[in-house]
Amino acid sequence: MIQPNIPESAQPRVVIVGGGFGGINLAKQLKHAPVQVVLLDRNNYHLFQPLLYQVSTAGLEPDSIAFPLRGIFSKQKNLVFRMAEVTGVRTADNILETGIGEIRYDYLVFATGSNTNFFGNKAIEQHAIGMKSLIEAVQIRNYVVKQFEESLLLKDPEEIKPKLNFIMVGGGPTGVELAGAFAELRKYIMPKDYPTLPQSLMEVYLIEAGPRVLASFSEKTSEHTMKALQDVGVKVLVNTGVKEYDGNTAILSTGEKIQSQSLLWSAGVKGVPVAGLPQDIILPNGRILVNEFNQLKGFNNIFAIGDIAQMTNDPRFPKGYPMVAQVAIQQGKNLAHNLRLMMENKTMKGFYYKDLGSMATIGRNRAVAEIFNTRLSGYIAWMVWMVVHLMSLLGFRNKLVVFINWFYRYFTFDRGTRIIIKRGAANIVKLRQTVGS
Amino acid sequence: MIQPNIPESAQPRVVIVGGGFGGINLAKQLKHAPVQVVLLDRNNYHLFQPLLYQVSTAGLEPDSIAFPLRGIFSKQKNLVFRMAEVTGVRTADNILETGIGEIRYDYLVFATGSNTNFFGNKAIEQHAIGMKSLIEAVQIRNYVVKQFEESLLLKDPEEIKPKLNFIMVGGGPTGVELAGAFAELRKYIMPKDYPTLPQSLMEVYLIEAGPRVLASFSEKTSEHTMKALQDVGVKVLVNTGVKEYDGNTAILSTGEKIQSQSLLWSAGVKGVPVAGLPQDIILPNGRILVNEFNQLKGFNNIFAIGDIAQMTNDPRFPKGYPMVAQVAIQQGKNLAHNLRLMMENKTMKGFYYKDLGSMATIGRNRAVAEIFNTRLSGYIAWMVWMVVHLMSLLGFRNKLVVFINWFYRYFTFDRGTRIIIKRGAANIVKLRQTVGS
Question: CB A427 to CB B130 under 8 A?
Fold first, then answer.
């Protein structure tokens, strides 16, 4: 019989749902706390989401940006990891319901992150491509390479264009970085791999509903980014929304139509709260309302951190903090501290977000960064971007492999991983069923 | 409309089916020949099969042992690559039938390799796991890690054992290397990642129908290998076959039963010839009978090389050459030479196989090799094995990434890529359908 088999401990149990930036930083900080930490995640790895776009554009191996959670915590004796899908919570009984059985908690922390938000547009949701998970990124890579291979089999430019037009929706860092990477595919890989396909048949669009890209940055940086994207050949459309998309044609709010079989949606994210929480603390964007201690309203021992949590008491961020890694990391660390204080019956410390700055890369030698009240762009920003991301990657092996891939790509203009891993062999059907298709 | 869109050329067209060791070596040697080369493969990459077992045991990323075919041939102007599945041949019309349309040929070369051979045992075929393709290797990795995760959820040792018993069938190099790698998983990874699972619950079996493992090596090497495998804890059973397997229990020819949900089959390979060839030149093992020039009997302009070809005129190998990379490489090169001779109306040169030796690794610091009439084992053989495999890998990036993974693993006893890449998100359904599930 399947059961969580979590050893009973005399110490209070902190159950953390989610092994993203928030969850692992909280868990790490509890290493020497007098608690039993139970970490749950549906995957067995921590995903370094900021580099996901490089996997989908054949720049990095999927394994390079994923780090096994058991590896991270192999030396943390007070932590138990279980790979499990959380299905609900019974707060009256302090019980979490999961795919591997019920798990009792003393303290419960939701660090479940966010999902792609299509804002209720079912047609777009059905046909657009999200990019939040590793398998999505790998499948985008497969799909993109396949679009090129299939374009070679067509003669009519009108049939080829929808295959080679790529639309990114959403002008935030993900959209900007994706658009830049696609522009590089066109510039460096297309002429080498597909010399018979005219480059004029491929277009990269970046569509943003607001008046500027990278809206969370300064206006100056937005302008600079917009210009840099146009320089590398991206068609940037601001003040423009996507009204309809059927998998072949996108109809914009301006009435313009773009033929494209690939619409990558990074225009929004939303929380996906677990069943069993009171509806009045769940906001329309799916985030859970928390106080300055990351506590859910009405609960003493249930918390939410990172993307899933919305904290509105900071006057700088009246609509809640941005859904970025830094907030999750800092909230994880602060909550670890607060849990200790709470158990010692001391007053907890309200969360204060220290904005370490943000950055986005546009492509080879080009990035923008706003750190320590300084605005950087171009080559310097690009170097800073690379160093920061390399340092943040978990694990020596991943750092080294990513560094080599970047180094190699810089000097060869090549992308090493543009392979299509197809399924198909008959005798893997069994595996597919078990591993979960 | 989909069509192959292969440009017409005044030069004769050589169509090569398969981008494995045989196909790419033939294609490369034809770089300066007065021919148009059309290379077809169902995948867009060349797979370095000798290291496939390391992908399935979480030692290497799948991308490290795959190299995009377009990358290999980006500078070969007389070559056209198309990703296509070949479905048949109409020899009377010199037409190859493929999933992307009909392709005319002047010379046709089958270099399609081999598939797993279950020797007609349907029950075993249904439940066993083959290991010939990249996706199979990735799925084995996912599956193995999942077996460990699920074992944690069980309390009864009798329920756990079938999950942690791994059976390799076939004592050739693949079976030996797999068994060695699984033994290392038990020795180094299991205590670190799953300290609560007693190692005694995991067994690794290597089952060989003949009297010794590595039958193609000398008896001395076989003995040495057998001892080395036993040293690392593999249960080696020779003179033993698998009679039945239902996905949970393997019944051996000795009557012994082994509980296991994982039976990896590397006990044989077979050719899968294309439809349309005369039946009398297709052998029971699926290989195509060729003469010393790799020509199919009855055809002047159709050839087969590598695993799919059976050449029986070498008295050293009355049953045909072994199905190994070296034969394919050498036949590819020889055929390139012969095609030139043929077009100049000169006499072709019969193939002569130069055995460069063979090797197999058993694990950390242990390998066996027989090269230049010298028998090596232990640390030296292991170093030779690594150097030879690194040098043979295509591409600087792959060499470097594989080297780093090995280097890292050697000093940390860690395996970096033990992650489970699951499918599941709703909005990738469309992608899955197109990319081919």
Answer: yes
For A13-79, the DSSP string reads: EEEEE--SHHHHHHHHHTTTSSSEEEEEESSSEEE-GGGHHHHHTTSS-GGGGEEEHHHHTTT-TTE
Average pLDDT over residues A85-100: 97
Reported ipTM: the value is 0.90
Tokens in use for A124?
């777009």
Q: Indicate which CATH number applies to the domain containing B130.
A: 3.50.50.100
Q: What is the DSSP letter of A115?
A: E
Indicate the residue type of A368: V
Give the full edge-to-edge strand order of the sheet including A257-259.
Answer: A242-245, A249-252, A257-259
- Cβ atoms of B259 and B161 within 8 Å: the answer is yes
**A355 CB contacts (<8 Å, ≥6 apart)?**
A326
- State the Cα–Cα distance between residues B172 and B209, nearest whole angstrom: 11
Give domain status of residue B284, yes or no.
yes
Whether residues B247 and A127 touch (CB distance < 8 A) is answered with: no
Residue-wise pLDDT for B334-354, tens only, equals 999 999 999 999 999 999 999
Location of structure tokens 């959820």: B153
Q: Of B236, B392, B404, which Cα lies nearest the Cα of B324? A: B392
pTM: 0.92
| Helix, strand, coil in percent for chain B, rounding step 5 | 40, 25, 40
Q: Which residues of A touch B419 (CB under 8 A)?
A: 43-45, 63, 66-68
Question: CB neighbours (10 Å) of residue B378?
Answer: 14
Mean pLDDT of chain B: 92
Q: Is B136 found in the same domain as B93?
A: no
Same domain, B275 and B261: no
> Strand, helix or coil at B257?
strand
What average pLDDT does this structure show over A149-170? 97
pLDDT in tens, B49-65: 999 999 999 989 898 99
Position B371 in a domain: no
Model confidence pLDDT, tens digit, residues B381-400: 999 999 999 988 888 888 88
pLDDT tens by residue, B84-142: 999 999 999 999 999 999 999 999 999 999 999 999 999 999 999 998 999 889 989 99
Task: Yes or no: say if A155 and B5 are a contact pair by the CB < 8 Å rule.
Answer: yes
- Per-residue DSSP letter, B147: H
- Give B120's DSSP letter: T
Residue B425: the pLDDT is 37
Q: Which of B313, B343, B373 is the last residue of a domain?
A: B343
Confidence at residue A416, expressed as pLDDT on a 0 to 100 scale: 66
User: Euclidean distance between the first and final Cα of chain A, in Å?
Assistant: 23
Task: Report whether pLDDT(B162) > 50.
Answer: yes
Distance CA B349, CA B326 (A): 18
Q: A-chain residues within 8 Å CB-CB of B401?
A: 61, 401, 404-405
In this complex, which of A62, A101, A146 lies closest to B421 when CB atoms are compared? A62
User: A401 vs B401: CB contact, 8 Å cut-off?
Assistant: yes
A263 with A275, same domain? Answer: no
State how beta strands B66-68 and B13-17 pair.
unpaired
Can you give the residue range of the structural domain that contains B35?
13-42+84-114+271-343
Q: What pLDDT does residue A435 have? A: 38
- Shared domain for A293 and A400, answered yes or no, is no
CA B93 to chain centre: 33
Within a 10 A sphere around the Cβ of A74, how many other Cβ atoms? 17
Compute CA distances A305 → A26, A246, A313, B304, whole Å.
9, 36, 15, 62
Chain B contact set for A61 (CB, 8 A): 61-64, 401
The verdict on a CB contact (< 8 Å) between A428 and B139 is yes
Alpha carbon separation from B127 to A129, B54, B208, B251, B261 (Å, rounded) = 34, 22, 18, 13, 9
Model confidence at A386: pLDDT above 80: yes
User: What is the total count of domains within chain A?
Assistant: 2
DSSP, collapsed to helix, strand or coil, labels residue A355 as: coil
Whether residue B26 lies within 8 A of chain A, CB to CB, comes out as: no
Tokens of A82: 């279980």
